[in-house]
Amino acid sequence: MTTRRRVVVVGAGITGLTAAFTLATNRPDLEVVVLEASKRVGGKILTTPFAGRPVDCGADAFLARVPEALDLCRELGLDTILTAPAQKSAYVWVNGGLSRLPSGLVLGVPTDLEALAASGIVSADGIARAAQDLTRTEWIDSANGDDPNGVDDQSVGHLIRARLGDEVHEKLVSPLLSGVNAGDADHLSLAAGAAQIAVAARKSPSLISALREQTAAAQTNPDAPVFHGIPVGTQTLTDLLLARLTQADVPVHLSCPVTDLSRNGNGWLLTTPLGPVAADELILTTPAAPTARLLDAVAPATASDLGSVEYASAAMVTLAVSKKDLGVPLDASGFLVAQTDPLPTLTACSWASAKWAHLDDPEVAILRVSAGKHGDTHALELDDPPLVEALSVDLATTMGIDAPPIAWRVTRWIDGLPQYRPGHPGRVAQWRAGVASDAPGIHLAGAAYDGLGLPACVRQGRQAAAAIS
Length: 469
Ligand SMILES: Cc1cc2nc3c(=O)[nH]c(=O)nc-3n(C[C@H](O)[C@H](O)[C@H](O)COP(=O)(O)OP(=O)(O)OC[C@H]3O[C@@H](n4cnc5c(N)ncnc54)[C@H](O)[C@@H]3O)c2cc1C
Known about the structure:
By secondary structure, the protein is of the alpha/beta class. 35% of the residues lie in helices and 22% in strands. Helix 8 (195-203) crosses helix 9 (207-218). Residues 10-16, 35-38, 43-45, 58-62, 257-258, 285-287, 290, 314, 316, 413, 416-417, 446-447, 452-454, 457 line the site of flavin-adenine dinucleotide.
């Protein structure tokens, strides 16, 4: 009898579970084992009951224009229950009030300057500055390189400030993109954090013209949903993956942190609370810091650079508020905060019960309020009650809510969101090449590398599974 080669997947977030599920489905010749440090699977995906409904503590939607997460939902039979946000537009807290974001934004970049002017968000000078982009024929930044991998990268802020001016960046692009990773768009890799803009920026010295062309060429149905949500909670996705792994007899060991990694002949030996676990190949889906610790002895150069990737910590505070206490109608998906008008604690607010029909209630509004960003940990240093109080002050300022919430819960995502710095795609390519040469048979996947959204994590899990020999 021949023994099957063993692949160990480290980390049971969406990336690791997808990798293990893909192997369990397609590779009966392999034995697959999953090792997870915490008591549960899902990683950054977590749904718990709140105000009688399944409300997400982390991710609550995934991008519809890329196929990977939707395809996985189809494979798991989840696609039939997917839902689109009930509200398509959002506000931004800017110039001391809430202004509805104009139509025609692509990742915050305005392509309809009339709509932008009508929104009142950007001053007449700011619009005139942005309009210079439309007639620009000379390249004014480094985006005209011919590097499709974005190795010759720059920050989002560098590009947008140069092409469209500071005001458009600080009032539109920065709040939108900084919200995705609780970071700072002035230090965010254009290639890794805003690939759609990077592609357009390389096409023409006029970013607006290139984005208009891109949008027209995509011929997307304007009524098609931009996001999908899972009404029973995003965690259903990872719960179903676990169920399918269990059905396929793939062991998923919880409370099982991998603490060390060493060579074992042509394979690898992992130190775990179960004792040593041998593997022929490994898929590491852990965040950058634990992955760097594991690689330290076997691929030191990669470990050293990977270990320097910074992460932001953020709190997601879910509030139930009586609708009679709201000072504004909940007629959008929520609001972002402009870089020009920072609030003391709140960084974004999703009007969850307006955004999702399944969370709506005649009397109670559910809000998901974000606090904390890279380089600013003061919100995370507060205990739960003072954090809720601090956010209540900001909600009084922005939404006129002057009564205390009916219920609240605080979820802290410490080191939850990787910060992609300019040059990130090039560094990722180097890490992968370094591991391939120093530690063959080890594969890197997950939010630290090629995108932190759910579709990107699913794609990386699939790719890591496909790379197993
Ligand atoms: C507040 C918040 C909101 C978000 N909202 C959205 C959204 O709306 N849409 C979207 O697309 N994305 C969103 N994201 C991003 C997305 O949820 C994450 O990027 C993604 O879930 C990360 O998946 P992953 O598998 O790569 O990593 P993780 O989920 O971090 O999984 C890694 C796993 O490895 C385990 N681990 C760590 N060390 C070890 C070890 N030594 N041994 C074994 N296991 C270990 C961890 O416990 C964890 O379970 C959000 C993220 C956050 C934090």
